[in-house]
Specification:
The complex is a heterotetramer of chains A (657), B (161), C (285) and D (314). Chain A is α/β, with parallel strands linked by helices and 657 residues long. Chain A folds into four domains: 125 residues, Rossmann fold, CATH 3.40.50; 239 residues, FAD/NAD(P)-binding domain (3-Layer(bba) Sandwich); 164 residues, FAD/NAD(P)-binding domain (3-Layer(bba) Sandwich); 78 residues, Alpha-Beta Plaits, CATH 3.30.70. Chain A is 28% helix and 25% strand. Chain A has a five-stranded parallel sheet with strand order 10-7-6-18-29, covered by helices on one side. A five-stranded parallel sheet of chain A has the order 20-27-21-22-23. Chain A starts with a strand and ends with a helix. In chain A, 53% of the residues are buried. Chain B is of the alpha/beta class and 161 residues long. Chain B has one domain: 3-Layer(aba) Sandwich (Rossmann fold), CATH 3.40.50. Chain B is built from five helices and four strands; from the N terminus they run H-E-H-E-H-E-H-E-H. In chain B, helix 2 links the parallel strand 1 and strand 2. The longest helix of chain B is centred in the middle third of the chain and has 18 residues. The radius of gyration of chain B is 17 Å and the shape is globular. Chain C is an alpha/beta fold. Chain C is built from ten helices and five strands, in the order H-E-E-E-H-E-H-E-H-H-H-H-H-H-H. Chain C is globular. Chain D is of the alpha/beta class. In chain D, the strands form two sheets. Chain D has a four-stranded parallel sheet with strand order 2-1-3-4, with helices on both faces. A four-stranded parallel sheet of chain D has the order 6-5-7-8, with helices on both faces. In chain D, helix 1 links the parallel strand 1 and strand 2. In chain D, helix 1 crosses helix 14 and helix 11 crosses helix 13. Classes of the chains: A alpha/beta (657), B alpha/beta (161), C alpha/beta (285), D alpha/beta (314). Chains B and C meet through helix 1, helix 3, helix 4 and strand 4 of B and helix 4, helix 5, helix 8 and helix 10 of C.
């Protein structure tokens, strides 16, 4: 027989003014299982908690009901009081007689009192069915996986590794560096991107706690927070990185030319290549799609010139596995393809380029040695028109959101143009200038004055050819007229868009993504770094467009989160999770289907005691289970129980009024 | 079979029971922890007043609500039930309320089919920020059920309190 | 519709080739022209097998028994039966490789009085959807517009008190024998939820209220899964119109979620085990 | 023999009679029989939809309902404006059955709208349903040497989600048809600019400005003539050309052909059947280019694109 103690709180006047507390206590005492009931001014105060502790010992109570404020407020406080008295904290139930009665029925004390009695009765009934629960402790593998080796991934990996936690950094392309490695200078200080990034890249390669796995992709993630297992596919590079010295003889002699991705296809690279001179690791890979040796078995020059014999045409993709405890996703962004802007003649006119192409041209190590040229005739342009918001803030043709960085990088481009071509003139068509950030507005102002750029507020409606010039027609909304600008070169500030394969990645990792393909954070304000899946964190543009300082901040925040997660040897977890009874489970696996966390897997158990024959049942991984109860409600054979919200507990509440 | 149904329908008719004086309905409110329960707490902290007929049960998610909680409530103590969860897309557990929504519709229609008035089984989405909405919902449900009177269906053999 | 000869031949061949341990089919009941299910275990019994428009029962139900579990079974399925078999397969209750399925392109079966069964008159999937061998000519009727069951339509028109009274009578007549559960191929749970303590708590098992609770829960567990084979109704000693509950759920699911009929698509678990963002939301405040 | 439901529209009986008659010649060669919609009415043109939504939908719907009585699945429309009204109505009705039901009540005597008949402009029909190969096969007098700028105007390919045909900004269907006839289509960036349309009567100056730019761009592209598929385009560019020339002080002398006229010409119909005398700008100058051999253009210099990979190493 259960022995329940009930403690009704006055909450000063908050409850007592509108609910007749002594009457509630009297009424509660009439319940058979209630062996002790009392009232106090502030139950949450130390003396109040003391009363609970004393009564537990004195009256040999088996469960406790506190009738007070919302359990969302003080459940933890009272649970602690129970533990202090040596009682399992989960034998507590809270009757919410403040938010649900005294505060909302202030005009009818009788009704409020009667409702408070009912709420107490319900809590008592539920507490009778409460069971002792114990916090789940989950062991932790203290190694982090960082997906993506752009500035976000680099920063996160370095910060985690500096805390002496091993990091596995997986990068898809042959070198880390990401988009930032393609940039010339960075706003608002005009630091050279290479100068600030490459030291960090080198740090990554030489860090004792970082395992860099380039030219690889994550293909599978299993397990749960603290205990993930990841499968990584190492793409065949056809070059033995262990023996290769990076001398470069192979790619200097390679006869096959392929458009160079690093330079946005403006120039050519070889079929065996390092993406750029400062690449980390600085080892070449063979592009299997273009290498004639791999395609047709003819050539083999690179193998001949390699003194170390590092070229291996028979190399295969390799799957490697790592055990990790947390994941930082930093897959960056894609540049949006401006093809829908047919009125600009995108794809028809060669002298319309995207901002990243412009960035490569003005870059000192770029394909044109730092001088912007017209792709059509190679001439240096004099009049350059920059069009902002190409794809951004355009519901009809592009994406609804603001890409956040284009205002700033376009400003930077006008400066770079001015530096490289002194007699040039830049025109910028813009919707707004969004320069919120430290030193950003000043940067824009200064650039406008220094470069003498003409800013035209309005959208471009058409671009057409006139001789070898491009005529850019748009609106100048400030004078309310249509204007036409004769341009040698047009640069489109294309939008930042989510990586194309983010949805696939999200499904593989078991996290969610938004309608654009950006990965979703757990809470837009208070948990912007976490995902809804414990142990997976987001850094950089894969979550939303952001600039470099913001990306670095988020990456460091990820590192802090990972370090926090790994602070102990085990992790504690709420015990309100589901369990499945093997005898009752019929093995239909509907629960496996509805579980949003993939916490349910199948298991083989003997069909009867001692039998060798097996049958399939479902099994819950309590480390992953978040305790939503979806599986409980769909389980027809009621084989699943959710601790803290069991059927008996809820039915007791229902029938107890 | 078809003819049988029709025949029986004509023959059976039972008098409606009349509500006793001072009768107050009991409404079982099953609320998800993250949105609606938090919303109902906000109604409290904002001191928005609503009728005292609702008795609130906390569950982690609307998807935890098994249809037979509703059946059980109506058979035993309640004259009506209200289940409330997070708005579509806001589920703390990603997709729970979508599964729940399907079950609720079928359950409501089935209970209505076997003789319960539709207003006795009601659902709402109330977010943690919608304190006033929660009060409005309770007002409406209480009003609806007061109009319908006490529920007697399948309560004949009820346990004695 | 008479496939007696073919089925006998198939069964004989399967036994001869050693492909099956048991064959589940129909035999004459021995005193009138009605049939009962039969499990035969060898070629010597093959001559007892029959199949005509009196072969009403859904034999998939017999895959739940110890005589068939973990054995190689041959069985005869009509359109509706095959849909329940599909669900059994999806829900991992039977293994396809253990079965040899003789599918029938069903022309409808008749009740004791010789009238075509109601579910056959409104049948939308007469051909077996799972089979190793198909007997008869496929009707290929394809997807039909969903027609609400006439009984449901009649009842839905009635005023609420009348409907309540009608169902009170129905539940009052239930004797809680659980024959409906036993006869349903999809009621295979190791322990039925309505037998659990919390379910019978405060309602009693053998009361109208208990019957109401049990039948409601039961029908909701079959919602989106019931294939309308009417085994339950044939088994019910009180002749309760159990199909009303199932057809009601089916029509709600079909109209609101645009789901296919239960068990038609392999791997489809039914409406409650998936969702769509576009599901109706207007009934929720 | 293919059959096609035909909605001529009012222009075909007036200003663009040459479009109508040459269309019929061309379709005869292409083995297509036109069936007029019995008792067709005004499409509502530019006026109805600025007045009331109901009328703007009801007028085309009556035609659509009547067209459903013929057995053909496609309705071909000569005039771009008629095409647009008809297509918009069809798309909106098909998307919104409730609206269709409501609008249908106004034309209930004609029948119930079912959405059976597809609506296509004659350009779209020629391009999609007949196809370039068949058109090419019927050419007996290729138009080699004739350089044309294809002008589509505002309505034939826009809005994109309604017409679902060709590019809304840089369409190529008419260009390809002209190339199939042996002519050369010039690179013309003003294909879909506004010609001034209905301002032709109310505010001529606008038309002169806009159409003037189109003519100037066509001239710059090297075209001898402009090809159109819309009666209003034709009349603005043709009829206003002398005024534009006077205003700008430039002699254009660019005749404006319907694409069907050029087709008929290439199919071998005698010039006197092509109604050229209806044109304001004389056509002879442009047609004289047919058969002339083009001087081989100077070889275009290969653009210097970038420094090759090797230099990067140094």
């Amino acid at each position: 027989m259960a022995r329940v103690g009930v403690f009704v709180c006055f909450c000063g006047a908050n409850i007592a003014d509108y609910v007749d507390v002594p009457q509630v206590v009297e009424e509660v005492k009439r319940i058979r299982e209630v062996k002790f009931a009392t009232e106090y001014k502030y139950m949450c105060s130390d003396p109040g908690q003391g009363m609970i502790r004393d009564a537990i010992v004195q009256h040999k109570l088996t469960s406790i009901v506190v009738a007070a404020c919302s359990p969302r407020m003080h459940e933890k406080t009272f649970r602690k009081a129970l533990s202090d008295a040596g009682m399992n904290p989960y034998l507590l139930e809270v009757a919410n007689i403040r938010e649900h009665s005294s505060w909302v029925h202030q005009k009818d004390k009788k009704a409020a009192t009667s409702k408070a009695m009912d709420l107490c009765r319900m809590a008592v009934a539920k507490s009778i069915a409460n069971e002792q629960l114990h916090e789940i402790s989950v062991p932790v593998t203290k190694r982090a996986l960082v997906i993506g080796g752009g500035i976000a991934g680099i920063q996160a990996a370095l910060d985690i590794a500096d805390a002496r936690i091993p990091v596995v950094l997986v990068e898809r392309s042959p070198s880390i560096g990401g988009k930032m490695a393609q940039l010339d200078e960075t706003f608002p200080t005009l630091d050279c991107a290479q100068c600030i990034l490459t030291p960090k890249m080198v740090d990554v390669a030489s860090h004792p706690y970082i395992e860099l796995i380039p030219y690889s992709e994550v293909i599978e993630l299993q397990g749960f927070v603290g205990n993930y297992k990841v499968k990584i596919r190492k793409k065949a590079s056809y070059v033995n990185f262990k023996t290769c010295t990076g001398c470069g003889a192979c790619w200097q002699k390679c006869p096959v030319k392929v458009p160079n991705e690093y330079n946005m296809g403006i120039d050519k690279r070889k079929a065996i290549y390092t993406p750029f001179p400062q690449a980390v690791p600085n080892k070449p890979v063979i592009d299997a799609e273009h290498c004639t040796m791999l395609l047709k078995g003819k050539c083999g020059i690179c193998a001949k010139v390699c003194e170390k014999g590092s070229i291996d045409y028979t190399m295969q993709d390799e799957i490697i596995e790592r055990e990790i405890g947390a994941v930082v996703v930093a897959t960056g962004y894609d540049m949006w393809d401006p093809a829908p802007y047919e009125e600009y003649g995108v794809g028809r006119f060669k002298d319309i380029i995207t901002s990243l192409e412009f960035e490569r041209m003005v870059s000192a190590n770029g394909p044109t040695n730092g001088v912007p040229v017209r792709p059509s005739d190679g001439k240096v342009p004099k009049n350059v028109v920059f069009i902002k918001c190409v794809g951004s803030r355009d519901e009809a043709k592009g994406i609804e959101y603001c890409s956040k960085i284009c205002c700033m990088y376009t400003t930077k481009h006008t400066i770079l143009l001015h530096h490289k071509v002194h007699d040039s003139h830049a025109y910028v068509f813009y919707m707004d200038i969004r320069a919120a950030g430290k030193g950003y507005e000043e940067f824009v102002k200064k650039a406008q004055v220094d470069t003498g750029t003409t800013y035209l507020r309005g959208r471009v409606s058409k671009i057409y050819r006139k001789g070898d010039k491009l005529m850019v027609r748009g609106e100048d909304a400030q004078i309310g007229q249509v204007v036409e600008v004769e341009a040698d070169l047009v640069v489109l500030a294309t939008a930042v868009s989510a990586p194309k394969d983010n949805p696939e990645l999200a499904r593989m990792l078991g996290i969610s993504y938004d309608k654009y393909g950006y990965l979703s954070e757990a809470h837009p304000k208070l948990r912007p770094v976490e995902t809804a899946k414990a142990g997976i964190f987001l850094a950089g543009c894969t979550q939303a467009p952001k600039d470099i300082p913001e990306t670095v901040s988020q990456a460091s925040a990820c590192a802090a989160k990972v370090c926090g997660l790994f602070a102990g040897d085990t992790m504690k977890k709420d015990p309100m999770v589901s369990t499945i009874s093997n005898e009752y489970c019929s093995g239909c696996q509907n629960c496996v289907k509805v579980c949003p966390y993939g916490a349910i897997v199948t298991d083989e158990v003997p069909i009867g005691y001692g039998s060798k024959e097996l049958r399939t049942v479902a099994k819950i991984n309590e480390g992953v289970c978040q305790g939503c109860g979806s599986c409980v409600a769909i389980c027809r054979s009621t084989a699943i129980t959710l601790a803290g919200f069991t059927d008996p507990q809820i039915i007791n509440e229902i029938v107890s009024i | 079979m078809e003819t049988e149904v029709k025949d029986q329908l004509v023959s059976i008719e039972k008098p409606q029971l009349i509500a006793p004086p001072n009768w107050e309905p009991v409404i079982m409110g099953i609320l998800c922890n993250w949105c609606s329960y938090a919303g109902s707490d906000l109604t409290g902290t904002s001191r928005i007043q609503y009728p005292p007929n609702i008795r609130i049960i906390r569950v982690p998610c609307s998807s935890r609500v098994d249809p037979w909680f509703l059946i059980k409530s109506l058979q035993t103590t309640a004259d009506g039930v209200l289940v409330s969860g997070c708005h579509p897309g806001d589920c703390h557990y990603i997709s729970g309320n979508y599964y729940a929504r399907r079950r609720f519709l079928v359950t409501k229609k089935l209970l209505n089919f076997v003789g319960f008035h539709e207003d006795r089984i009601q659902f709402s989405w109330v977010s943690a920020a919608e304190g006033p909405k929660f009060a409005k919902v309770v007002n409406k449900v209480t009003e609806d059920i007061k109009k319908l009177g006490p529920l007697h269906l399948y309560k004949k053999e009820n346990f004695e309190k | 519709m008479n496939y007696t000869k073919q089925i006998q031949e198939i069964a004989a061949k399967l036994f001869a080739e050693g492909k099956i341990d048991v064959f589940v089919g129909y035999r004459m009941n021995g005193f009138d022209d009605n049939q009962v299910p039969v499990l035969i275990t060898g070629p010597q019994e093959v001559s007892r097998l029959v199949f005509t428009d009196k072969s009403v029962f859904n034999l998939v139900n017999y895959l739940k028994t110890d005589h068939t579990r973990r054995k190689r079974v041959g069985l005869v399925v009509k359109g509706c039966d095959s849909r329940s078999l599909n669900l059994m397969l999806t829900e991992s209750q039977v293994k396809r490789e253990n079965l040899y399925v003789v599918g029938i392109c069903c022309e409808g079966v008749v009740d004791d009085a010789g009238r075509k069964m109601q579910n056959c008159t409104e049948c939308m999937v007469p051909d077996a959807v799972v089979s190793d061998e198909l007997l008869g000519t496929p009707s290929n009727i394809g997807l039909q517009p969903y027609a609400v069951n006439p009984d449901i339509a009649v009842l839905a028109e009635k005023p609420l008190p009348e409907r309540a009274a009608y169902f009170e009578e129905v539940f009052e007549n239930c004797i809680r024998c659980n024959a409906c559960r036993h006869s349903c191929p999809l009621c295979y749970c190791a322990k039925c939820c309505i037998d659990q303590e919390t379910a019978t708590l405060y309602n009693g098992a053998n009361t109208t209220s208990g019957a109401f609770h049990a039948l409601m829960t039961w029908s909701l567990h079959l919602a989106g899964r019931c294939v309308d084979c009417r085994n339950c109704e044939k088994a019910c000693p009180s002749h309760l119109p159990l199909h009303l509950l199932h057809k009601q759920n089916e029509s709600v699911i079909y109209e609101n979620f645009q789901e296919h009929l239960a068990g038609v698509i392999p791997g489809d678990r039914g409406a409650f085990y998936k969702y769509s963002m576009q599901d109706p939301d207007d009934f929720i405040m | 023999m293919k059959k096609l439901t035909y909605f001529p529209g009012c222009s075909a009986h007036g200003t663009s009679e040459e479009f109508d008659s040459t269309l019929k010649l061309v379709l005869k060669t292409l083995d297509v029989e036109l069936e007029d919609i019995p008792d067709w009415n005004c499409c509502g043109a530019t006026s109805a939809h600025v007045m009331t939504e109901n009328l703007a939908y009801a007028l085309p719907m009556r035609n659509l309902v009547l067209a459903e009585k013929l057995e053909n699945t496609t309705m071909g429309i000569a005039c771009a404006s008629c095409y647009q009204r008809m297509k918009v109505t069809k798309v909106h009705m098909d998307e919104n059955p409730e609206l269709a039901k409501r609008i249908n009540t106004t034309v209930v005597e004609e029948g119930t709208y079912q959405g059976k008949v597809d609506v296509k402009s004659m350009l779209q029909y020629a391009y999609e349903d007949i196809g370039l190969d068949i058109i090419k096969s019927k050419v007996t007098k290729p138009l080699n040497g004739l350089k044309v700028a294809c002008y589509y105007g505002c309505l034939l390919t826009r809005p994109k989600n309604i017409t679902k045909f060709d590019s809304p900004e840089y369409p190529v269907s008419m260009d390809q048809i002209c190339e199939a006839l042996g002519a050369t289509a010039t690179e013309f960036d003003y294909k879909t600019e506004c010609c001034g349309a209905s301002f032709s009567i109310s505010n001529t100056e606008v038309v002169e400005n806009l159409s003037g730019q189109i003519l100037a761009m066509a001239k710059e592209s090297g075209a001898h003539a402009i090809v159109v598929a819309c009666p209003l385009c034709q009349s603005n560019l043709d009829m206003r050309q002398p005024d534009i020339e006077k205003k700008q002080g430039i002699k254009y002398d660019i005749p404006i052909f319907y694409f069907t006229q050029l087709m008929a010409l290439a199919f071998g119909y005698p010039i006197d059947q092509l109604k050229f005398p209806k044109h304001i700008v004389p056509v002879e100058g442009a047609l004289a280019n047919i058969g002339k051999v083009e001087p081989v253009p100077e070889k275009v210099k290969k653009p210097i694109k970038a420094v090759e990979a090797e230099s990067e190493v140094k």
